[in-house]
Amino acid sequence: xxxxxxxxxxxIKRIKEQLIRxxxxxxxxxxxxxxxxKEKIFIINKDVARIELxxxxxxxxxxxxxxxxxxxxxxxxxxxxxxxxxxxxKKKPLKNSVTLSSEELRAYFxxxxxxxxxxQENRLVLLQYEKDVFGxxxxxxxxxxxxxxxxxxxxVIV
Length: 158
What we know:
Elements: E1 4-6, H1 9-23, E2 31-36, E3 40-45, H2 46-49, E4 63-68, E5 73-75, H3 77-89, E6 97-99, H4 102-109, E7 114-115, E8 123-129, E9 132-140, E10 143-145
Parallel strand pairs: 6-8
Antiparallel strand pairs: 1-2, 2-3, 3-4, 4-5, 7-10, 8-9, 9-10
């Protein structure tokens, strides 16, 4: 069983500020943020956070939202979708968002890296198809590196 620490207000503020720097938006809903020993960030409803979790035998708690890399926050597939959906609902534009064609989307879901010129700066980018954000990946030297877990890969996407 993994040990999760409930993050304090200062840590949550740092994470949200980093998300705003990277992507121009951070979740505004009132979640409790938990962090594992491996620096993975999970979010849960604040009502659940009030339960004494150490007394329960729980395999997983909350939604895997992101990984804290210190200088950057790498969103999970679900975290990117949550951020994109909330930004769209509030009509906020996202920074570092890359819109993919249906061919690029298909290649990405097959597990391939994508050749795309997004400038010189290496950074994390949100992947978008039409209006939907579906993931987060690293852009480095003209290539979008595929972080999609094998369990989410497939052939029939679009």
